[in-house]
Amino acid sequence: MLTPEQTNQLKTLLEADLTRLGDHAHKAMEFTMDRDRDRIGRDSMDEATEEEVYSTALRLADRESFLVVKIREAIARIEKGEIDECEECAEPIGFKRLLARPVTTLCFECKSAREQVEADERPE
Ligand SMILES: [Zn+2]
């Protein structure tokens, strides 16, 4: 079990991450809107480079909104008192591990096992 101080520390971390990511998502949105405006009456300037920048920005925004969801889920688990409970084996997740990665839902052993499976399924 985590102490109330440890729980608060994790919650502060998660809320700070949420604020930071919220700002980024907003910027990605503005970028998309600017791009649409630029399209009107524009000739074929370096289209390939632009596409690359655009899809990188979108991928980043995708990953960040995925993270935002994970962070909201972690905050919900804190509120239910389940933040340090492994979803696989129900063993407590160590506080150090949670501090390093507050959105985790797996203890170190289960995470390692899962990563092994994922690496086998889709090699990258
Ligand atoms: Zn576990």
Key features of this structure:
124 residues, mainly alpha, Four Helix Bundle (Hemerythrin (Met), subunit A), single chain, binds zinc ion
- Secondary structure class reads mainly alpha
Strand percentage? under 5%
Q: Tell me, what's the shape? A: flat
Task: Report the uncertain regions.
Answer: none
What is this structure's SSE topology?
Blueprint: H1 4-39, H2 47-80, H3 95-100, H4 108-121
Helix pairs in contact: 1-2
What does the model show?
By secondary structure, the protein is mostly helical. It has one domain: DksA, coiled-coil domain (Four Helix Bundle (Hemerythrin (Met), subunit A)), CATH 1.20.120.910. It contains four helices and no strands. Helix 1 runs antiparallel to helix 2. The two termini are 37 Å apart. The model has no long low-confidence stretch (mean pLDDT 85). Bound molecules: zinc ion. The site of zinc ion (ZN) has 8 residues, from helix 4.
What is the gist of this entry?
This protein is an all-alpha fold and 124 residues long. It is built from four helices and no strands. The model has no long low-confidence stretch (mean pLDDT 85).
